Amino acid sequence: MVNRKELNPERSPRERFGQYVRAMRDERGWTQEELARRLGCSDAHISAVETGRRPATPQFARKLDRAFGTGDRLERQSQAARPAALLEGFPEYVGYEGRAAEIRLYEVGVIPGLLQTPEYASALGDSTVKRGVALREQADERVALIAQRQASLTRMPAPQVFVVLDESCLLRPIGDGTLMGAQFTRLLEFAERPNTVLQVAPFSIGVRRPMTLPVTVLTMPDRTLMSYAESANRGHLERESASVLPILGDYHQLQAESLPRAASLEMIRKLRKGTS
Question: In terms of DSSP H, where are the helices of the chain?
Answer without folding.
Answer: 13-27, 32-39, 43-50, 58-68, 73-81, 90-97, 118-130, 136-152, 167-171, 177-191, 241-257, 261-275
